[in-house]
Structures are given as C-alpha cells and as structure tokens.
Amino acid sequence: MLVLALALTASTFVIIAEFPWNGNPIAWLSAREHYDAGNRLNDRYFLSEAEARYKHAIKIYPNDWRIHWALAECYMRMKKYDLAEKSLSEAIRLQAKSADLSLSLAECYLEEKRLPEAENAVRKAKELEPERADLVSLLTLILYRQGKKDDAAKIFKSAELMEKDSPKFWYYAGKYHFQLGDFQRAEVDFRQAADLSRTNPDYWETIGLFLSSKGDLQRAEPYLKRASLLNPYESIYWTNLGQLYLQSRQYDKAENCFARAYELKPQSDDNWLHLGLSRMFLKKYDKAAEIFQKVLKQNPTELKALKAYVKTLTIQKKYNAALEQAENFMRDSKNQNAGNWSYLASVCTECGQFEKARLAIIESKMRVSTPEEQADLDLVQENLLKAESAPKTSAASKSPVRGAESQAQLLSVEPGAKESLAAEKTKKP
Q1: What three-state secondary structure class fits 427?
Q2: Residue 170 maps to a domain
Q3: pTM
Q4: Phi/psi of residue 130, each to 5°?
Q5: 380-406 pLDDT, tens per residue?
Q6: What is the C-alpha separation between 139 and 162, in angstroms, rounded?
Q7: Where are the beta strands (DSSP E) in 288-425?
Q8: CATH number of domain containing 246
Q9: Which domain holds residue 276?
Q10: Helix (H) and strand (E) counts for the chain?
C-alpha cells in the first residue's frame, strides 16, 4: 500500500508539474487523455487516428504546447509540412524558449527546401542550447546546401568535443558526408543513427537507399524491408522496397510490395505504374492492363497510363487495339503537341502502320520547339527507317518488343526511362 501511495503521489506530482497553469485544469486533464492516446497511436504509425486524437485534445484545451508539438510531429510523419509548420508556430507561441521546437521547425523548413528559414530556426535553437551536437550537424547540412561550404566545415568541426548520443546528429552528419562524396563515412554515420534509434524507419530506409544508390542491392534489401515493417502504413517504404526488387529482377516480390503501396496510396504514379510494370514483367498482362485502364478512367489524359496500357497491348501483339488507344488520345486537341505526335508515330511504327507513322512525324515537325523534342523526333524517324528497310514480314516481327524479357523495353513507357527504377522519385540520403 505504501508503494502504491508513493507511486500515485509521484504520478500526481508529474501531472501537476506538466500543467501549463493557463486555463481549466479539469479540461486539461481531459485533453491529456486524448493526447496520451494520440501518442500511443503515433508510436504505432496509425497517423490519421493520432491526428484526430491530438486535434480533439487541442479543441478541449488549446493552451498546452506539448499537444501542438505532438500534432506537428505527426504531420511531419505524414509529410504534411504546411500543417506541421502551423502547429509548430502555435507551440512556439506558447513555449518560446524551446530548442526542441525550433529544431523541429528547422527540420520542417528543410523538407520544404526553405533553407534560409531553416538556418534561422536552427540558430535560434543553438542560442538556447549551444552544446547540442544534433543542432550542429543539422546546421552544417543546411549551410552546405546553401553553398556555404567553408562555414559548414567550420561549424561541423565545433562538434568534435560534444556528446554525440543523439541519432539525429549521426543522421544529418551522414547526409552531410554523403553530399561531400565521403560515402564510406556516410554509411558509418547512417548505421550509427539506426543503432541509436532502432524503431525509426527513416534511418533504416536511408541506409537502404544509400546502399541501393551504390548498386549494393543485396545489402540494401534488409534495411528497406525493416523500414517497411517498422511503418507498414506509409506507402513510400513499400515503394522503395518494390523498386529494389524490380532492379534485382525479383518481380513477384516487387508486385507484392507495389500492391501494398498502391493499396495505401493509389493516386501515386510511383505505385500504380510500377505495380503494372511488375505484372508485365511477370507476363500478367491482363492484370497490368486493369490497373492502367482504371487510372485512365479516372484521368483520360494521364500519358504514363496510356503509354503503359498501349505497351501491354503491343506486347500481346494486339496492334489494332494499341493503335486505336493512341489515336483516340490524339483526337483531343489538348494532347496534340510535338512529343505526343512523336509518340503516336512510334506506336504506328511498332504496329507496322508506316504511312500513319510518317503523317504523325509531319505533325510533330510542325510543332517541335525544343532540342529535346527534336532529339525524340530524330529517334522516332530513325526507328521508322529501320522498320521500313527490314525484311517484309508480319507486323509482329516488326515490333521491337517480343516479350517481357527486357526491362529497357518496358520502362520505355516513360520518356527517357533508361535508368534504374530506384533513380525515379525515390527519397535519397
């Protein structure tokens, strides 16, 4: 009983110490219940549910800066940086002298690439706690990205004698060394960040992306897999893992990852496009076509979906259907630019309709206005000449695509998509 009484007394003291002494304490206690529930949800990455709890807590008691900060951190995880900034501004209004709040605001500005504002925020944090190594490494990175390389090096050196027990120090140090080109040191930094915070998926994801960018796919896999397991409700982790599997030609695993990512965020072309592509590599052409048709039904002018759908048809030698899709797209005057006419010419060539290809090339020539458009047109004309000079056989033999063996062929559904999928719209260190 004595132990229980002491525990209750200690708990009561903590609660009293955290009360902002501004407003109704009963309302604050009620808000705190929702705040604590939001924290539990946030820790498990049920972010929408956590957001609702935090907002309800603020509605009951708007004067606790901790609740506004928790909501801001939740928004940061959701990549809603504009909302995070608003919540942080309110938290700072209520608690001006907090290095942690200024640090969070600097991180928010950094994600939005508002570097001067990020620098101001982190410098305010350093004024409050000048011996914090994580503030030093973040400021170093911000200065470097603004081109202040000498200042960045000088600031980073000042951290040599500081305690480096914060994972954020190593995380931002890794990003700094990565941009310096010191990849070996960057990898050590990222690993140290992950070791200090083993439940933060961003740190594990960063190591995986770093290794993937160096071509070490085998070592990258467990890190990207762990990130997706730590936060299975964020689509980007599944997208990155799926792209790694596409690169390593593990198409069945890629399909599973992109299916999960598509379920979480169906509007992202990183998800629906690559889910369709992975199915094409597995020769599941009808299932791939279903994805692209669904996107086109919602947005008939989505060029990536059109090109991918047409590719599923030409691979199956359904040339009439492929040509019909491309021609229908071009009937809309909004789509009649040089690049799209060149694309129609390439489809006509692939389908063996050389006269139509020449007419589309003429239309493209009349609209070309940039060197890039001219280069695309020159390539289309070169392919047409090759096709016309080839032995006269069936349209199927004229098609450059004979199956799903070539990644380069399938990736050509996107203009200029010659490089690995991991290079596309994927978060980099």
Answers
A1: coil
A2: no
A3: 0.76
A4: -70, -15
A5: 999 999 999 887 655 444 444 333 344
A6: 15
A7: none
A8: 1.25.40.10
A9: 198-282
A10: 24, 0
Q: How many domains does the chain have?
A: 1
Per the structure block, which two tokens stand in for 390? 């080839």
Q: Is residue 154 part of a domain?
A: no
208 in a structural domain? yes
Q: Mind listing the pLDDT tens digit for each residue in 283-337? A: 999 999 999 999 999 998 899 999 999 999 999 999 999 999 999 999 988 889 9
In three-state form (DSSP H/G/I as H, E/B as E, the rest C), the secondary structure along 43-68 is HCCCHHHHHHHHHHHHHHCCCCHHHH
Both structure tokens of 219? 């070592």
136 Cβ contact partners less than 8 Å away, ≥ 6 residues apart = 126, 155, 156, 158, 159, 162, 169
> For the chain, how long is the longest CA-to-CA vector?
97
**Residue 172 corresponds to which amino acid?**
Y
34 vs 119: CA distance, rounded Å = 34
CB 28 within 8 A of CB 76: no
How far, in Å, CA of 278 to CA of 400, rounded? 20
The candidate with the shortest Cα–Cα distance to 138, out of 163, 166, 161, is: 166
How far apart (Å, rounded) are the C-alpha atoms in residues 274 and 288? Answer: 10
Which tokens go with 214? 């160096």
Residue 20 lies in a domain: no
Whether 265 contacts 232, CB under 8 Å: no
Residue carrying the six token digits 């200024």: 102
Q: Which helix (H) or strand (E) holds 11?
A: helix 2-18
Residue 28, judged by CB atoms within 10 A of its CB (0-12, 13-18, 19+), counts as buried
Please, are residues 206 and 174 in contact by the beta-carbon 8 Å criterion?
Answer: yes
3 state DSSP class of 336: coil
Q: What is the pLDDT of residue 416?
A: 35
Helix (H, G, I), strand (E, B) or coil at 424: coil
- Rounded to a whole number of angstroms, the distance between the first and last alpha carbons of the chain is 54
Residue 45's pLDDT is 86
* Distance from chain centroid for Cα 265: 11
